[in-house]
Structures are given as C-alpha cells and as structure tokens.
Write a structure and sequence with these properties.
about 40% strand; 11 strands; 9-stranded antiparallel beta sheet; alpha+beta; 5 helices
Amino acid sequence: MQFLRVILPRGLGSDFMKVLKDDGAKAISCMYGYGSAPDAISNLLHVDKVKKEVVMAILDDESVKKILDDLSEKLDKTNTGIAFTSPLDYKGEDDLNFDIDYVALYVIVDRHEGQKAVHIAQENGARGATLVHGRGSAKEVKSILLNMNIEPEKDIVIMLVKKDLVEKIRDAIYEQMNLIEENKGIIYSLPVMEVRGLVEQN
C-alpha cells in the first residue's frame, strides 16, 4: 500500500478525487493549503501565497502506476500540480532500502511559524512548499477557557526535496527554529517512490 498526495491549485481537488475514486483509491480526502514559491518568483509575481488543495488517498501497490498515469494526464493540463507517493510500511531511516531521488519533508510548528520554516528550507536549496493549517492535541499544551479545551493552532509544511538536500535542510530548520526544545515542533521525512508533474530541482 502507498500513501498518495496530490498538490493542486485551489478548485481542482474535486476532479482529481473523482479520478482516484474511479480508479479504486481508498480513504480519499482533501484539505486547503497555500503554496510558497522561491522568493525570486514571489517578488516577480507580487504574491506571497498561492491557494492550493492537497488531495490524499491510499493506493494498492498493483494500481499505483495506472492511477499515477491517469493523474499525470490531468497534471499536464494544470501545469502547476504534483503527485507523489510514499510506502505505508515505512519504519524509519533504518528501513530506507529504496532507490529514491526525492523525499517528502514535513515540519509541524506553531501557527505563523511555518513560513519561517519555508524560508529556511529555500535558503538551503528547497524550491516550493505547501503550508496547511491544523490543530495540536497534546495534553500538556492545552489551555482551558470556560470549561472548553483550547487547542493550539499549527502550521504543517510539506516539501518535496532532493534526497541529497534533505539532511542539510532538516538540520537547518531543526537548529534555527530550536526544535530541540519541548513543544517547539517536529520535523520528519518520508521516502518518495513515485512522482508526477514535478519540475526538476537544480
């Protein structure tokens, strides 16, 4: 089984979810996010964030190629989407026996800190990133107001980076954002088995 993520311009998620459903994908879901391009591109276009949708699904190993080929046709038309998969049975770096070129890097930090992680990553060779808003649920960081739990808001940053850049980017974010401190955030990576719609990183 593989975990699929498709990152698209806002408004296209439903069409891609239909393709996934028709092809037999499971546990299909979609959430809103924002894309961040490198500073030079952002300055040229006078934009800081681009609205995105992140479609996720679970795929059988046998159907991965067909589904990705079907998605690839639609990605070619959008010209700004990307699809990639990771194995569901991945157990950590000691289990990394895959011949891969790219890694999906995730950073989860407090709300409004995600953009800082993106800038650090770009300074160390990453290209685009997608930022999604979420909530934390750890007991120790909840506060109570009028007998209601107030859960801290979080930023989730998703980046697809070349394997040889991962350690440099991960270490820079970890150190510059003080992730060694409790409740400051976490960073982790997943191997990427298949990619469609990706512009080559230099």
